[in-house]
């Protein structure tokens, strides 16, 4: 199943910079592994914001929740999820 996911990242200003740098490096490695696995099929930066719009291709809601909730930056994210269905006018 395909899902559009919007992630807004809000890191508290008083966070330890070294801890945040480590989490960001771990997040990047995890995001790239998921892309190589074909589960995170699009990852786009929202221009001008520390946010992304992504497309995930996973088995269903439970797998998506498992993936998102174990992202290293998950505690600092506001996430919204939109399940996607086939559009009748799509040629793909
Ligand atoms: O930068 C972000 O949008 C947050 C998160 C998503 C992928 C990644 O590497 O970091």
Automatic annotation (TrEMBL):
Cited Gene3D superfamilies: Dimeric alpha+beta barrel
Any one GO biological process: beta-ketoadipate pathway
Record GO terms (molecular function): muconolactone delta-isomerase activity
Entry EC no(s): 5.3.3.4
Catalysed reactions listed for this entry: (S)-muconolactone = (4,5-dihydro-5-oxofuran-2-yl)-acetate
InterPro entries: Dimeric_a/b-barrel, MLI_dom, Muconolactone_d_Isoase
Domain Muconolactone isomerase, first and last residues per copy: 1-89
Family from the record: Belongs to the muconolactone Delta-isomerase family.
Name under which the protein is recorded: Muconolactone Delta-isomerase
């Amino acid at each position: 199943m395909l899902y559009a996911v919007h992630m807004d990242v809000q890191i508290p200003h008083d966070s330890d910079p070294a801890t945040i740098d480590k989490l960001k490096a771990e997040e990047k490695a995890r995001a790239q592994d998921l892309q190589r696995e074909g589960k995170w099929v699009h990852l786009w930066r929202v221009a001008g914001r520390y946010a992304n719009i992504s497309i995930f291709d996973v088995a269903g809601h439970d797998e998506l929740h498992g993936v998102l909730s174990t992202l290293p930056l998950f505690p600092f994210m506001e996430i919204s999820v939109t399940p996607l269905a086939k559009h009748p006018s799509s040629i793909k």
